[in-house]
TrEMBL record, chain A:
<keyword id="KW-0489">Methyltransferase</keyword>
<protein>
    <submittedName>
        <fullName>Aminomethyltransferase</fullName>
        <ecNumber>2.1.2.10</ecNumber>
    </submittedName>
</protein>
<feature type="domain" description="Aminomethyltransferase C-terminal">
    <location>
        <begin position="883"/>
        <end position="969"/>
    </location>
</feature>
<dbReference type="GO" id="GO:0032259">
    <property type="term" value="P:methylation"/>
</dbReference>
<dbReference type="InterPro" id="IPR013977">
    <property type="entry name" value="GcvT_C"/>
</dbReference>
<dbReference type="InterPro" id="IPR028896">
    <property type="entry name" value="GcvT/YgfZ/DmdA"/>
</dbReference>
<dbReference type="Pfam" id="PF08669">
    <property type="entry name" value="GCV_T_C"/>
</dbReference>
<dbReference type="InterPro" id="IPR027266">
    <property type="entry name" value="TrmE/GcvT-like"/>
</dbReference>
<dbReference type="GO" id="GO:0004047">
    <property type="term" value="F:aminomethyltransferase activity"/>
</dbReference>
UniProtKB/TrEMBL annotation, chain B:
<dbReference type="InterPro" id="IPR038561">
    <property type="entry name" value="SoxD_sf"/>
</dbReference>
<protein>
    <submittedName>
        <fullName>Sarcosine oxidase, delta subunit family</fullName>
    </submittedName>
</protein>
<dbReference type="Pfam" id="PF04267">
    <property type="entry name" value="SoxD"/>
</dbReference>
<dbReference type="GO" id="GO:0008115">
    <property type="term" value="F:sarcosine oxidase activity"/>
</dbReference>
<dbReference type="GO" id="GO:0046653">
    <property type="term" value="P:tetrahydrofolate metabolic process"/>
</dbReference>
<dbReference type="InterPro" id="IPR006279">
    <property type="entry name" value="SoxD"/>
</dbReference>
């Protein structure tokens, strides 16, 4: 309920939201948890394993219980912490893990079966049989146990990622962080101050402290105003630093749009994942209060003492009408003082310590403990023992405090281990755990406000001093009360004493783990799942550790901690992968003919990042094969036009260009005459084929190399490597010109006739023999012509600057159509090259040598080249290797498949009998047969032999004849004609 | 991770392509013994500590560089262009 005169929200700013369909009013800017408590809602969720009723425990991002689902459909967000979600008009929230409703959850039957669901239950019960696991156990467990779920729909929300750089990153904007930012900001360095809350100030917003005689929250607001006015300071609210990495790099998740309705800000991203690079950093992440494990300490209404003060002082909400407090330290007593001052009844403070004084007018029970609690869906009463007896107290809210754990998490992200502090009874950061990062405030164990302010100022001053800047340390006055605490981790009594609320782990589970010899903290964690839920055990790990230490007869420092790993809070995959969904997954490279192709309804297929036309459907054609066959016919009988611009083109110039090519190609290019083209084979240094293509010599010192579409990037990187690292003696320069030239194949018996309709000066067979090249003029445009062929036909490739590509393609296709030809796509191109035995990366897939593809004689013995030495290795020249052959379906009509393996007729189709495999297949309309290329052991010696192709994946078995890979026009008369 | 490109300055590792140990710079002569080539091509010490490795500033100036860094502490000690470096 609301408490008049308390809190920093404005009663006039009312918003409406729904929780499980019920409408509630709240105040703008407050968290869902505050709004629910203001409306008297205590039951907000069911626990993971036992489906126990649970309420709000904390007031921050460490919340283990109050997880809800926001929204529906693709944008549905599960497991949102009610303690950080800011409400807005129209917000729709649902509880999780309960069916049919929160109050009547059928699955709470698990709680009755609890004796059978102890730690290690999964391992013990579901060992075997294996089939049961998949068909029975897993589906049942998945349905019964779990948190929120995704909708399964595509999420159209916008997410972002961004980078930032600064001199000093300050993590957390409580008193220490604000003081650090003021100190560094006033000194003039570039500061980023990040805080996960919507408002900066940390505990100053939630306590009744004064700073410099001023209300703490007002002091914080003034500090933020001063910082906001500094050009060198960037304030990032709703931004959690999630990880500390090498070289001063920090990950951060900014909640950008979760606090506004989508309709009000359709262009606002939901979240932004930041990578922040900081020369220095100060961790001012504060501390997290830890619960005490007493019997049935998980009822709705039992929460952290600091959370009660947050709801009261910051949000103006009292979580109960008669509040009790159970604690082992002084700090928690302030809860009673604040409540009484606000007019809320305090029914008693139970302190485990014997020697302690009340700070105000409330019943104090020393040497006390809470031994039982009652109330099914909300707390109704507690039973306590104390110095002089036992009694039951009516209470609807129990504030507990087992002390504070400094938030050491980030200091452990690079293998650092925290140090146990006997006075604080907590782990504190170990110096130097993260290079360039220092820790200040409560995170460093400075528990008073003054301590936080002082260490923040000193930490920032030391950090900027490292950067050569002097900062003035000027700290305001504030309380400096001692932090007195006595160990209390668990209370004996009947009932389960919960440690990890989110994963339903209790004290007995830890003891069972120890008893079953899972004594290492890492083993205990995995056996019990302690700390493995979405909150990563932020509030429960230290207490669990203490219980384990006790059960194994060791101290806490000897027991050690589990490893803290990033992220500190859950980070959605959508934010990390921002921009990479759908079309953002990879860039699209489009050729100049793209629109002409799609305009002809050509289906486009991906070739690396490129999109290329598969085929060009004609009216009346029902299958791609009909189109493909027609296009093959264009090239074999008339003329076809195909965009080949996607092949890599590298312009190579310099006095040593020829020597360079001799070194990177297995064959020789220095002997190539000007205006001639040669096929080139490029090896990797390990003697296997890297790539192939044609290279033209345009002048004495000028070549243009083509690569395959697939390997263009790899070849370019390789050439850079060779030129810079291995042959810096050669005077050669090169640049990729793939994007600069549009290039089209014009192939078929009528190709020259077609070209002569578009070239300014006609060409003749005498001037342009096979493998010639040179400059041509097309409509006054300077272009290049290459007489090369990938189809075995009389063919050319014509290149023009890219800006003329679209119009030249249209012109060439129109002329081809006038000559009973037309455009052809990738399917026809593939058939044409298979019929001729021309290889692609289907064949040169990385494990084949020049020898394997029948090109070993191309490897020059007269010079050194990349891959030469390794290619001479005995094992790479063994005739029994799998070598390139053609394969023809014996009856012509049985379809063969790529990927099938080859076996001797009658042999079992098992790997021991493997004779090779098929790499490329097609229906050849020219040969009226299914054909393919593949590799067969000692293939060239086995021509005419029948082998059986077995495709285990598709279940296809076909008898094939081993033949020459050149199926069509083996003597090459057509290409020269 | 950021690498100090001698030409461009400190740049994000996403701009770089990794090749491996800098001993790839010491290419044997074409007629060198098979064992020498085996070492060059295939044999690497998987060091825990300071290593020299090859990176290509593919998304930047195109320089191949030798980076000296520590695989234990992840400290990057420096980088130089391959033309000036020797394995
Ligand atoms: Zn560079």
């Amino acid at each position: 309920m609301r408490v008049a005169g308390k809190g920093h929200t404005d009663a006039a700013e009312t918003v409406h939201f729904t929780f499980d369909g019920q409408s509630y009013a709240g105040r703008k800017g407050e968290t869902l948890a505050a709004a629910l408590l203001a409306n008297g809602v205590k039951l907000v969720g069911r626990s993971f394993k036992y489906h126990r009723p649970r309420g709000i425990v904390t007031a921050g991002s460490e919340e283990p219980n109050a997880l809800v689902t926001v929204g529906t459909g693709g944008g549905q967000d599960p497991n949102v912490r009610a303690t950080t979600l800011e409400i807005y008009d129209g917000l729709e929230v649902r509880s999780q893990n309960a069916w049919p409703s929160l109050k009547y959850d059928m699955m709470s039957v698990n709680d009755l079966a609890a004796p059978f669901l102890s730690a290690g239950f999964y391992y013990k019960t579901f060992m075997w049989p294996k089939a049961f696991w998949e068909s029975l156990y897993e589906p049942v467990i998945r349905k019964a146990a779990g948190l929120g779920a995704l909708s399964g729909d595509i999420n159209d929300d916008i997410y972002e990622k961004a980078f930032a750089h600064c001199d000093l990153l300050i993590i957390g904007a409580g008193p220490a962080g604000l003081m650090a930012a003021l100190t560094a900001g006033r000194a003039g360095v570039d500061v980023i101050l990040a805080d996960e809350d919507s408002q900066m100030g940390g505990r100053l917003l939630a306590e009744t402290f004064t700073v410099d005689g001023q209300d703490g929250a007002d002091w914080a607001a003034d500090a933020v105003s001063e910082l906001a006015a500094m050009d060198n300071v960037r304030l990032m609210t709703r931004t959690t630093i999630t990880g500390a990495y090498d070289q001063g790099t920090y990950g951060a998740i900014e909640q950008v749009g979760h606090h506004v309705a989508r309709a009000d800000a359709p262009d606002l991203p939901r979240e932004c994942f930041w990578r922040i690079v900081a020369k220095r950093a100060v961790l001012c992440a504060g501390a997290l209060e830890r619960p005490i494990a007493f019997p049935n300490n998980d009822r709705p209404g039992i929460m952290m003492a600091s959370a009660v003060r947050s709801y009261l002082n910051r949000w103006g909400v009292a979580p109960g009408k008669a509040v009790t407090i159970f604690a082992n330290n002084d700090d928690a007593h302030r809860t009673a003082v604040d409540l009484i001052a606000a007019g809320v009844k305090v029914a008693g403070v139970i302190d485990v310590r014997a020697d302690v004084q009340a700070m105000g007018d409330y019943p104090l029970y020393t040497s006390g403990a809470v031994t039982a609690t009652k109330g099914r869906l909300a707390l109704e009463s507690i039973t306590i023992t104390h110095a002089v007896g036992t009694r039951e107290i009516r209470t609807d809210c129990l504030a507990m405090s087992g002390g504070w754990n400094p938030t050491v998490h980030l200091t452990c992200h690079m293998n650092g281990r925290p140090t146990w502090d006997e006075t604080l009874l907590s782990f504190v950061p170990t110096d130097g755990s993260i290079p360039g990062l220092t820790v200040a405030g409560a995170a460093a164990g400075h528990m008073s406000t003054l301590g936080a302010l002082q260490s923040g100022a000193k930490g920032a001053a030391a950090a900027v001093a490292d950067l050569g800047v002097t900062a003035k340390v000027d700290v305001p006055t504030a309380e400096d009360d001692p932090y007195r605490i006595e160990a209390c981790w668990q209370v004996d009594g009947k009932g389960r004493k919960w440690l990890d609320f989110q994963n339903d782990v209790h004290v007995k589970d830890i003891k069972l783990a120890a008893q079953e010899n899972f004594r290492s903290v890492e083993h205990m964690k995995r056996y019990t799942t302690q700390g493995m839920a979405t909150d990563q055990g932020k509030s429960s790990n230290v207490a669990a550790l203490a219980v384990l230490a006790d059960a194994t007869g060791r101290g806490i420092p000897e027991t050690g901690t589990t490893t803290f790993r990033p992220p500190y809070v859950p980070v959605s995959i959508a934010a990390m992968g921002a921009g990479s969904q759908g079309h953002g997954f990879a860039p699209k490279r489009l050729t100049t003919s793209h629109h002409a192709s799609t305009g002809r309804s050509a289906p486009m297929i991906e070739a690396g990042l490129w999109y290329r036309p598969s085929y060009f459907p004609a009216p009346g054609e029902k299958t791609w094969l009909e189109s493909c066959n027609r296009e093959v016919g264009y090239v074999r009988d008339a003329v076809g036009v195909c965009d080949v611009s996607t092949l890599g083109k590298i312009d190579i110039q310099g006095p040593d260009a020829a020597a360079f090519l001799d070194f990177v190609y297995a064959n020789t290019f220095s002997t190539l005459r000007e205006n001639r083209v040669r096929y080139g084979l490029m090896l990797r240094e390990d003697g296997h084929v890297m790539d192939d293509g044609t290279t033209a010599r345009l002048g004495a010192d000028h070549y243009v190399m083509t690569t395959t579409t697939a390997a263009a990037g790899q070849v370019m990187t390789h050439l850079e490597w060779v030129a810079q690292a291995l042959r810096p003696d050669l005077d050669v320069r090169f640049a990729s010109v793939t994007e600069q030239w549009a290039q089209f194949a014009v192939a078929g018996p009528r190709s020259r006739a077609l070209l002569n309709t578009v070239l300014d000066d006609p060409i003749t067979g005498e001037d342009w023999p096979f493998m010639s090249c040179g400059a041509v003029s097309i409509g006054g445009i300077e272009g290049r012509l290459f007489r090369i062929s990938f189809s075995g036909e009389h063919a050319y490739e014509i290149a023009v600057p890219s800006r003329y590509g679209a119009s030249l393609f249209r012109l060439l296709v129109a002329q081809a159509e006038a000559m009973e030809g037309g455009a052809y796509g990738m399917e026809a191109l593939n058939v044409l090259r298979i019929e001729k035995g021309f290889i692609t990366h289907a064949e040169i897939h990385g494990r084949v040598t020049a020898f394997d593809i029948g090109m070993d004689r191309m490897v020059s013995r007269k010079k050194d080249c990349i891959g030469f030495a390794a290619s001479r290795r005995e094992g790479l020249l063994d005739g029994q290797r799998e070598r390139l052959v053609g394969l023809r379906s014996v009856n012509g009509t049985d379809k063969i498949t790529a990927g099938a393996h080859l076996f001797v007729e009658g042999a079992d189709a098992v790997s021991d009998n493997d004779q090779g495999y098929i790499t490329s297949v097609c229906w050849s309309p020219t040969l009226d047969s299914h054909i393919g290329l593949g590799f067969v052991k000692d293939g060239p010696s086995r021509l005419g032999e029948h082998v059986v192709a077995v495709d285990h994946v598709r279940g296809v078995t076909v008898t094939c004849e081993v033949c020459s890979p050149v199926f069509f026009d083996p003597d090459g008369g057509r290409v020269r004609g | 991770m950021r690498l100090p490109c001698p030409i461009c300055g400190e740049r994000d590792r996403r701009e770089f392509y990794y090749k491996g140990d800098a001993l790839a710079l010491d290419r044997p002569a074409g007629d060198a013994d098979g064992g020498v080539w085996d070492d060059y091509l295939h044999n690497r010490d998987n060091l825990a500590g300071v290593v020299r490795e090859l990176w290509h500033h593919a998304g930047g100036c195109g320089a191949w560089i030798v980076v000296t860094r520590d695989t234990v502490t992840h400290e990057v000690h420096g980088a130089e262009r391959v033309g000036k470096a020797k394995a």
